[in-house]
């Protein structure tokens, strides 16, 4: 399947460029707001991605920023693309944040998961067990929609140029028999199968490795083909919310953490053997 441009990424490019043009003119948020007749909160919401910008609003900003004709054309195109709908918009009720939109155009996905197998490699039965455990009041229709959304995400791995997927799994995620022994054996087999793909690497971080650099929990690093336009993003997950980190210092810290985890984990071949052994040990 061919890769498609992500509206989420285009919206991020647009707001980054608007911040750059404002800084280039030496204008503060308050000065922009006064010049275009907006409340300063509107300027902040647009620059932080909490609000879109209309065609007329974009024109006002570009006039104020003295944008060149090429810049105007490029940003108008970005704004049009940002207003389009990605496939994930149909699942807005079960995909509450922008992660999938950022994931959709990633050239590389590097993730550490401490408690469960990441969604891109989950079997349907494993996913259902996870969802039922976390959404104790969910009805069948809601669960089915979450499953459908997760299945749609997996198309990412079969596009013409799939992202490089590097997963480090804590042994706890491998040992926990989610859904029972039969479901977990099938899930482990799915991971081993994915390891055969040239674009997928899986490492297991064993209990024997002791303390490590990400004891606080899971995170994902998203890298993009055009790094100058789309700098790396880090997502940090916990039970209550998801943090998006973009500052260079924050990204560098998590990249260093991931490198430390890779060094402590079993290598990919050893990890595949480990998964096979764990599967054989599961008792019905």
UniProtKB/TrEMBL annotation:
Entries under InterPro entries matching the protein: Cro/C1-type_HTH, DUF5753, Lambda_DNA-bd_dom_sf
Domain HTH cro/C1-type: 18-72
PROSITE patterns noted in UniProt: HTH_CROC1 (PS50943)
UniProt superkingdom: Bacteria
This protein's name: Helix-turn-helix domain-containing protein
Native source species: Micromonospora harpali
